[in-house]
Design brief:
The complex is a heterotrimer of chains A (143), B (121) and C (492). Chain A is mainly α and 143 residues long. Chain A has one domain (5-135). In chain A, 75% of the residues lie in helices and 0% in strands. The relative contact order of chain A is 0.15. The model of chain A has no long low-confidence stretch (mean pLDDT 87). By secondary structure, chain B is mainly α. Chain B has one domain (4-120): Helix Hairpins, CATH 1.10.287.3510. Chain B is elongated and about 75 Å long. The mean pLDDT of chain B is 87. The model of chain C has no long low-confidence stretch (mean pLDDT 88). By secondary structure, chain C is an all-alpha fold. A two-stranded antiparallel ribbon of chain C has the order 1-2. Chain C has 20 helices and 2 strands. The A-B interface holds A 31-33, 37, 129, 132-133, 136-137 and B 58, 60, 78, 82, 89, 92-93, 96, 100.
């Protein structure tokens, strides 16, 4: 698809909006339907879209495999870290009430960080699945 | 207690049996995974459908709404969907590797090739 | 203080070790982290085991949301017993894993192996610790998904198909379980198992409750490989890397048995589950079929690992027989057999791992003269084999004793006779190994090549444990009796 000028231009125009929409879904999760899962998938979809138009190697240069694997681990660690932080601040595991002076603020802060962790991990996992399946049998070193 | 008022349960049961049937009857590994996914999807329906109240909205407190649907099944099924996706991805990854190792994704051919390899060794 | 957080640390430590291992991507560091997580969780489990009040429990509310609304963890004598078993096996196996994995798995995937190992451990510990039926499903899937990866991670191509079969069967089992939980949720409006048990008493024997019981029992029977739902197990154990066979044989099915007991006795209550649904007849029938058929099949295997795998199916039969008998001795036998069979099978599989490393084969015909080649391995195999048979002064004997007592108490003398008879079949297949290893002349020149100490020492710790817990039963037996009492008492 490298020669399709229209697709390439449209893709470049669309991808920033896809990422922006992912962030909207992420932060809207505080007040209504939305959250880390959906936002993570949309983020990954933007990169996968880029990969479909510009080719897998280009996507791998943009978001390297090593980075994707760190995303998977990092998101889970962020989630777990929030839980442990609650424990260190005197509450139970995953206790958001103690994360700020005001319990309601604490809940906001906790869920925001946890959802960020979910976003990172879900985006990482989706990208990893795409890379591994799409790259299978093409470049043996990259899978 | 009429047939029609329980249509969501009937749909659940039909999907469930359909998925299980594909799982048992087909030897193709990809088709087996399709069956497994349908089977798992039926469970999503089993959880979600009873959580909905007619006229109920999403449980976000507001002046003008009095009836809310139960949000807990959605949360549970979101988790179950993630589990389902993980299972499907792992299953497909295994099928890819089985294809690379055996050159086939038909269960009987794979077992056949294993048996032949066992006799040669 | 930290002691009140022990129930959650038990689960979270291994779960958080997994992403750390992936982040560092270093084989040795991965092993160190996995070993540290396993040993820490063993220490925590032992602490919990000795501090859990008799007749009481530790409750832990996640996120400080009180139990029926939030997810609660609950450690009573029964869960503490399972926690100790799982984390003990994990910490011995992880010590053993380094040398064995270096030989059987490609170096690139070593860190992934250890990540999956601690993930599986965390899942198994979570199953035992949680008091929430749906949370239990999530942990069940965490441990199952990681065990599918563990089975397929070796170089054996048969392992791929075995892992796929296990994935299909395991997912059907877990989905059946979740259907059952869904029906229970519809009837009671709660997922907290303590709450559920209370409300089920009011709902009574309605059809959805009975079908929930049926779904959960069948689903978990798939997971514990109860005959005739065991077909995934021999393939999976025979083709997985030795470390994985050892770990899963000792833990995965055992934890599912714990869940089955938890639901039959604590949530539904024995009156509903075993009497109203005539589960006694079904379970006794299947248990007998399992012990007799699987023992006979094990007798005719020409692969050492496959023989041990079929013997596992047979041993599950003894456990379910204890459950079906439904008296104090029977339940004690079931619980203590989780432990006794766990350590015995782990010892055997670890010794086989040494044989794989030195000889590169597990075929019976290649075992001729093994005792001269690997004297300690062969002798350890015999000692652990005696425990598998259940001769006096071995761990297996304690189980058989209580099982026979339980059968006699129910006046089923034929069951008692059957337990003894099937033990004789297992004596036969252990004898086959003895004959091959000690009495047959090896083909060609024999050079002594004992397994390295890093494999031999952990394996022999387990072998000695098989003897120790046959002679000194104060911890394993009183623990099992308290666990059995806690299961029957439920959440009160």
């Amino acid at each position: 698809m490298r020669s399709q000028l229209v697709l390439r231009v449209i893709a470049k125009l669309l991808i920033p909006f896809m990422l922006l929409f992912a962030l909207y879904v992420q932060f809207h999760g505080d007040f209504g339907p939305g959250g880390g899962f959906q936002a993570g998938v949309i983020t990954a979809a933007a990169v996968i879209f880029y990969g479909l138009i510009y080719g897998l190697p280009a996507a791998r240069r943009l978001v390297p495999d090593r980075f994707v694997e760190s995303m998977i681990a990092g998101g889970v660690l962020l989630y777990g870290g929030v839980g442990v932080a609650g424990m260190l601040l005197g509450g139970n595991f995953l206790d958001y009430f103690v994360l700020a002076a005001d319990p309601v603020h604490g809940q906001h802060r906790g869920i925001l960080l946890v959802e960020l962790g979910v976003l990172i991990t879900v985006a990482g996992v989706m990208l990893k699945i795409f890379y591994v399946f799409a790259g299978r049998g093409r470049d043996p070193g990259g899978a | 207690m009429s047939f029609a008022s329980h249509y969501s349960y009937w749909a659940t049961i039909v999907l469930m049996v359909l998925g299980l049937y594909i799982l048992i009857a087909r030897g193709n590994l990809i088709k087996k995974l399709v069956g497994l996914s349908i089977f798992q999807t039926s469970v999503y329906l089993l959880y979600i459908a009873p959580g909905k109240l007619i006229g109920g909205t999403a449980p976000i407190i507001a002046e003008q709404f009095r009836i809310y649907s139960n949000p807990l099944p959605h949360v549970l099924i979101l988790t179950a969907i993630v589990v389902g996706v993980a299972t499907l991805a792992l299953g497909l990854a295994l099928v890819v590797r089985i294809y690379e190792a055996y050159g086939s994704i038909e269960e009987d051919e794979i077992i056949d090739r294993d048996r032949k390899a066992g006799q040669d060794a | 203080m930290i002691s009140e957080h022990l129930p959650i640390l038990q689960v979270v430590l291994p779960l958080l070790a997994a992403p750390l291992i992936v982040l560092f991507r270093h084989a040795t560091l991965a092993w160190l982290l996995a070993a540290a997580a396993s040993w820490c969780s063993f220490v925590i489990a032992v602490l919990l085991f000795f501090t859990v009040p008799a007749g009481g429990a530790f409750d832990y509310a996640l996120g400080s949301w009180a139990a029926p609304w939030g997810i609660g963890y609950r450690i009573d004598s029964a869960s503490a017993y399972v926690l100790v078993l799982v984390s003990l096996i994990a910490s011995v196996v992880v010590t053993y894993a380094r040398t064995s994995i270096a030989a059987e798995v490609d170096r690139d995937s070593h860190y992934l192996f250890y990540a999956m190992f601690v993930l599986c451990l965390g899942g198994l510990l979570g199953i035992a610790a949680t008091n929430d039926a749906f949370n239990l499903f999530v942990f069940l899937e965490i441990s199952s998904l990681s065990s599918y990866v563990l089975i397929a991670i070796g170089r054996n191509r048969r392992a791929l198909h075995a892992a796929f079969q296990y994935l299909i069967m395991g997912t059907i089992g877990a989905t059946f379980y979740v259907i059952g939980v869904g029906l229970l949720y519809l009837m009671t409006g709660t997922l907290n198992m303590a709450d559920m048990a209370e409300r089920l008493a009011q709902v009574g024997e309605t059809r959805p409750v009975l079908s929930a019981l049926a779904f959960i029992t069948v689903g978990l029977s798939l997971k514990i490989a109860l005959f005739p739902l065991h077909f995934w197990l021999p393939n999976a154990y025979a083709s997985a890397p030795s470390v994985v066979s050892a770990f899963l044989a000792g833990t995965a099915t055992k934890v599912s048995v714990y869940v089955l007991m938890r639901f039959l006795f604590s949530v539904f209550g024995a009156r509903l589950s075993l009497d109203a649904l005539h589960l006694f007849d079904v379970l006794v029938g299947l248990s007998i079929a399992a012990t007799v058929a699987a023992s006979l099949v094990a007798l005719f295997q020409d692969d050492l690992k496959r023989m041990l795998a079929y013997s596992s199916v047979a041993q599950v039969g003894y456990i379910t027989l204890g459950i079906a008998l439904n008296n104090a001795d029977g339940l004690t036998a079931a619980v203590i057999h989780l432990f006794n069979h766990g350590i015995t099978k782990v010892a055997l599989f670890m010794l086989v791992g040494g044989i794989v490393l030195r000889m590169g084969t597990t075929r019976f015909s290649d075992m001729a003269g093994l005792a001269r080649r690997m004297p300690f391995t062969a002798f350890g195999f015999v000692v652990a084999g005696l425990s598998l048979i259940g001769v006096p002064a071995s761990a297996g004997f304690v189980t058989k004793w209580y099982l026979v007592m339980a059968a006699l108490e129910r006046a089923h003398w034929w069951l008692a006779a059957l337990v003894v008879a099937t033990s004789l079949i297992s004596a036969l297949y252990v004898w086959r190994f003895v004959e091959m290893a000690y009495l047959r002349e090896p083909a060609g020149e024999v050079r002594r090549a004992e397994a390295p100490l890093s494999l031999l020492i952990p394996a022999w710790i387990m072998v000695l444990a098989c003897t120790y817990f046959g002679l000194e039963t104060s911890y394993s037996l009183t623990g099992a009796q308290e666990a059995a009492a806690a299961l029957v008492r439920g959440f009160r």
